[in-house]
Amino acid sequence: MEHTDWLLAAGERGNPATRLDRRHPDGTAWSRGNQARALVHGATYFKELLAGIRAMRAGDLLLFTDWRGDPDERLDGPGTEIGAVLAAAAERGVIVKGLLWRSHLDSLQFSQRENRHLGKEIQAAGGECLLDMRVRPGGSHHQKLVVLRHPGRPELDVAYVGGIDLCHNRNDDAAHRGDRQSLAMAAVYGSHPPWHDVQLALRGPVVGDVEAGFRERWDDPSPLTRSPLTRLRELLHHEDIEADRLPPQLPDPAPCGTHTVQLLRTYPNRLLRGYPFAPDGERSIARGYLKALRRARALVYLEDQYLWSARVVEHFARALGEHPELRLIAVIPSVPEEDGRLALPMHLIGRITALERLRRAAGGRVAVYGLENPEGTPVYVHAKVCVIDDVWASVGSDNVNLRSWTHDSELGCAVLDESPDPRQPSDPAGLADGARSFARQLRLDLSLEHLEAPGESAAALCDPVAAFDAFAATAASLDGWYAGGCRGPRPPGRLRAYVPPALSYPARTLARPLHHLLVDPDGRPLGLRIRNEY
User: What are phi and psi of 291, to 5 degrees?
Assistant: First the structure.
């Protein structure tokens, strides 16, 4: 197996302005010799992040970007509020630098409570956190990363990349009883919405790649916002509007594992003046998916917050149509939700249309599920994970929708393991490139949780057909238990067959033309759409 069979070559990224690939001495668009670990659930990630930050000392470097940051979100109990933890690091002499999307502060809006938001708390302690609105109209900075660098102690260097924000709702664990610090969501999710999410912990040379990506945004000389009103507000509130110079970047950490990691990104083509590091935008997330999907033969395993865009799903449908043995398992929120309310009908049409296209392509080879906790409350799936043929694995901030592939800033990691899975000799799947340890173990770990199956079941689930059938049988058993009035013990498993929300005929009739005329499948007005070829 050649890396270029699955990963983008430097020229395929479509963004010659970035130094992300040029920084590699061998000219490759990825880094070798890394260790990637999947941190499933916010509680797992937050606990590890807390320990890493508390171990930092004067002169160390902490970088982060986020879509939303709540300063009072506890990482691991009282006294571990993220704002206080970052402020304490800055007070110890750690160099703390952050980029937050301007539209999401402590109270969801720019108001008299702004002095409580995460950026203000960090700045008061000597760090620096900028509110970044350098996006397309209607877009956002959706990247979620943390980098911890330690001069003189490179063995401690680590980067975190994935779907988990430093904010409310995220601190949940495998029991899925929700974060005690909760934001309002659709009523069906309860007062403490159960939350499923994944973050990667990365060690090795790839840490330097993640840092280089942060520096590209930090060093962008463009104003943080183009809005005259917002710039006036910045002056009135004495906000930091210019980035201080970062210390020179340290050499990359030494190789420490068997994982090749490629950073994939989305940046939009901004009007008038683009990003210096991506003047025509970057679509490497979309391109990375398209290249990997062309090699899919046995199983595409998806966990995604949206899975709604007929244009994006078309590429999955094409792969399914061309390869009659290929199957797709998707785990998504059973109840679509937007900003604390049920999704609007014209947005739901986007998901309905996407799923109809997949089923036309493959019929019974497509299976879509929602999750629930042991109490029967739906689990909100916020994870952004894709595993193809147990070879290529992607974890990031990007969803399977047009918005993530074209419009918002996103960051994901494609991981190829140099180590074949040790169960390979008895693997009946006949995968062309042979299963790889990281991708297969990620799929198995997620599957075992959703199936509530013992660890010894993992060997059987290596077979893609057996895994597909196990998901179907588990969901059918739980659905049947509900249909029978919940008599007898609840069967094991947390999977429910996904049923699209019922729309009345008038609502569906009205929503479909509105959906096509006014919004794209992700709910963005068509007037704000961009050059979104990829």
Answer: -65, -45
Q: With left for phi above 0 and alpha for psi between -120 and 50, is residue 523 left, alpha or beta?
A: left
* First-last CA distance in the chain: 26
**For strand 61-66 and strand 145-149, is the pairing parallel, antiparallel, or unpaired?**
antiparallel
Instruction: Write down the H helix ranges in 381-420.
Output: 402-406
Q: Express each pLDDT in 113-167 by its tens digit.
A: 432 478 889 999 999 999 898 988 878 899 999 999 999 999 999 999 999 999 9
Enumerate the H helices of 152-293 as residue ranges: 206-218, 228-236, 284-293
Q: In the chain, pLDDT over 70 holds for what percent of residues? A: 85
pTM reported for the whole predicted model: 0.93
Encode burial over 484-511: b for 16+ CB neighbours within 10 A, e otherwise.
eeeeeeeeebbbbebeeeebeeeeeeeb
Alpha carbon distance 399, 308 (integer Å): 9
Question: Quick one: pLDDT at residue 373?
Answer: 98
d(CA 359, CA 352): 11
Between 43 and 103, residue with greater pLDDT? 43
For residue 131, report the phi and psi dihedrals to the nearest 5 degrees: -95, 110
pLDDT value at residue 171: 98
- Residue 326 token pair: 């290929």
Residue 87 host element (H or E)? helix 82-91
CB atoms within 10 A of CB 335: 16
Look at residue 324 and give its three-state secondary structure.
coil
Lowest mean pLDDT among 273-287, 316-330, 501-515: 501-515
Q: Each residue of 227-239: pLDDT tens digit?
A: 655 555 655 565 6
The pair of three-digit structure tokens given for residue 293, joined into one six-digit string: 């999907």
Which pair of structure tokens corresponds to residue 441? 């173990």
Report whether pLDDT(532) > 80: no
Q: What share of the chain is helix, strand, coil (3-state, %, to 5)?
A: 35, 20, 45
Segment (H or E) for 62: strand 61-66
Rounded-to-10 torsion of CA 351, 352, 354, 359: 140
CA nearest 452: which of 156, 46, 176?
176
**Which of 514, 317, 282, 340 has the alpha carbon at shortest distance from 400?**
317
What average pLDDT does range 270-280 have in this prediction?
A: 89
Which class for 452: exposed (0-12), middle (13-18), buried (19 or more C-beta within 10 A)? middle
Q: Are 91 and 57 in contact (CB under 8 A)?
A: no
Residues 455-481: b if buried by 16+ CB within 10 A, e if exposed: eebbeebbbbeebbebbbebbeebeeb
Compute φ and ψ for 235, nearest 5 degrees: -65, -45
Distance CA(219)–CA(134), nearest Å, equals: 12
Q: Which two tokens stand for residue 490?
A: 């609840």
